[in-house]
Amino acid sequence: MVGWSIWIFLPSKTPIIKQASGQKTANSDPSSEISNTQKSKTNLVIPAKYKLSESSVPNSHNIDEWLANYTSLDQKKIRDFSERYNGVLKISGPGQIAWMAEHGYPTPEDIITASEFSTAKLKELAGQGNSKAEMLLYDRLVDEYISARDAFVSAGNRRIDFNMTDGSSKISEIMELQQGLSSLDSPFVFYLEMRNQELVQTPDAFASESSILSGLLAAQQSGDIRGIVLLQDCVVSKVCSADDAGIATGAAISVAKASQMNAIRGGCSNLPPVQMPAN
Q: Does residue 246 contact residue 196 with C-beta atoms inside 8 Å?
């Protein structure tokens, strides 16, 4: 596989991500640009397994415009979801909204719909083959796990003991769900995997950062051209330090993740993914 270079520039224009063997960036060939007609389409073609609610494509160019018609309470739910996954709902145009919906990403409508379902209902839908419900069930179970673990620690127990005691059944359920998610063909899986480090018994800052870096870069290689921008946001907000060791580890892992995704899609590793439009 031909190596590609990925660069991120901070405001100082200092490059912080260097060449990684096998790494691909978004295709910059003008001939690959999606036409304005395609970018503004409203007839979504969402695979049945990723359909949880009726989703639309408003003429929005940022997350604020996208969420303007939701209540303040729903806006908070949606924004909180986006932030849990490193700004996954940050967009720059309706073409990106359509691409995300058609590639299995949870939409604001999905997030609100899921919030109205019980955990049992999400499990039922996931069991029937609804992968979107499976994704949002994972989000729900991780939140429930963290809340239970925090209560366990607050009661005077050691965090390291949680998975072997009160949290045993919870972590087993999450791990089983992870196996199913790993076989999906949506780049959103890489965002979900970023939360895996929240489940470890002993926090590891380096592993957590590597998880974010590899997830965003793998999403980039799988067609989500916002990966680099979201990674830059992560660095600017100081959630990611982007030191050389973290970058090297994250980049190496991302190549393996993207290759696995490509295999799931039944594609050839030398072919570029179907890319998200620029806006």
A: no
Helices (H), the chain: 36-39, 63-66, 72-84, 94-102, 108-115, 119-127, 131-154, 168-181, 188-193, 205-221, 227-236, 244-265
Q: Which token pair is 243?
A: 């030191």
Domain ranges of the chain: 47-189, 204-267
Do residues 271 and 232 make contact, with C-beta atoms less than 8 angstroms apart?
Answer: no
| pLDDT at 62 (0 to 100) | 94
The single residue listed with the structure tokens 């909204």 is 97
Contact 9/15 with Cβ under 8 angstroms? yes
Q: Residue written as tokens 């970018």?
A: 39
Categorize the per-residue pLDDT at 277 as very low, low, confident or very high, splitting at 50, 70 and 90: confident
The amino acid present at 51, given as its one-letter code, is K
CB proximity list for 27: less than 8 A, separation 6 or greater:
272, 275
How is 230-267 classified by DSSP, letter by letter? HHHHHHHTTS----HHHHHHHHHHHHHHHHHHHHHHT-
Average pLDDT of the chain to the nearest whole number: 80
